[in-house]
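Aim 2 progress update. The chain analyzed this quarter is reproduced below.
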Amino acid sequence: MGHALWYTSRATGLVSLVLFTVVVVLGAANVARFATARWPRFVISTVHRNLSLLALTFIAVHVATSIIDPYAGIGWLDAVIPFQSVYKPFWLGLGAAAGDLLVAIIVTSLLRLHIGLRWWRLVHWRSRQLSRRRSHASRRNRPVVRAKRGRRAPCRRVGRLSVTVALRSSAPLRGSSGTGSHFSC
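Predicted structure tokens:
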């Protein structure tokens, strides 16, 4: 059972990292008003929301299996309060802080109509900064045997940045009067 929890925790963590990367790219594409005939803005927004919910499910399973697995001895408070864990406190602290920020994103998204767009955007865009640290933390928590795979992470970061820049630069400016590739919703 112990190995199953360990593998489940690592697999759900990896899947949630990939899903959150796609969610961030789709969110950036939506902000940049990127759209095509096949991917209008409302589709990008809907896929962004649905993948966010799927990623939340995977992150919940990841946290639960990490706590249940006796290998690292992580407690419930270690998953919520940053930098309190005995096992790799800095990296788990970044994960706990990212989880707390994720809760803030969920709460502000649910209360978006009541708190205003300005505060919602502030929390949403600040979360992107911590997602970079969470990606780095996931590489640092790998066993020593798998350390060589961590060298590919800068390539992934460059790839994500390239896609984001390409999406932002391909979208027409908001005030342009040409026939842009976006739909006004």
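The chain has one domain: 2-143+151-170. Residues 2-143+151-170 form one domain. These observations will guide the mutagenesis experiments scheduled for the next reporting period.
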